[in-house]
């Protein structure tokens, strides 16, 4: 749907389905017991990001992907929260945080859009909205 955001939520087991439903967030798919693939109405985006920032466990992050912007909420090891919107001035910092928290080489995350496109839940939206496909291999 237009004006909706997608999010692959993990690392927030204390965030309940009822809290998501209260914001109008739809659980599109579940992957295992702790991962929820979500559709978030644009009107609920800020409330969702605030809720996630409070409920994420340290060393996890959550991104929300919309047609016009991609936003990140990082919960660092010390419990502090860093919120960033992907753009030319923030891509290097976002890539470094993703690499650090996911314990992968920076080379895997340096191109943030392609890194996100490796997640099958985002693949079609990123191709449609940003013209990005995951690299093969």
Task: Tell me about this structure.
The structure is a single chain. With 137 residues, this protein is of the alpha+beta class. The protein has one domain (4-130). 36% of the residues lie in helices and 26% in strands. The chain is built from 6 helices and 6 strands, in the order βαββαβββαααα. It has helices at 17-22, 45-55, 91-102, 106-109, 112-117, 120-130, and strands at 4-9, 26-31, 35-41, 60-65, 70-75, 81-85. A hairpin with a 4-residue loop joins β4 and β5 (70-75). The protein is globular and about 40 Å long. The mean pLDDT is 94.
SSE blueprint:
Blueprint: E1 4-9, H1 17-22, E2 26-31, E3 35-41, H2 45-55, E4 60-65, E5 70-75, E6 81-85, H3 91-102, H4 106-109, H5 112-117, H6 120-130
Antiparallel strand pairs: 1-3, 1-4, 2-3, 4-5, 5-6
Going across the biggest sheet, name each strand in turn. 2-3-1-4-5-6
- Whole-Å distance between the termini? 30 Å
Low-confidence stretches: none
| N-to-C series of helices and strands | EHEEHEEEHHHH
Overview in brief:
This protein has 137 residues and is an alpha+beta fold.
Write a concise keyword list for the protein shown above.
single chain; 137 residues; alpha+beta; 6-stranded antiparallel sheet; 6 strands; globular
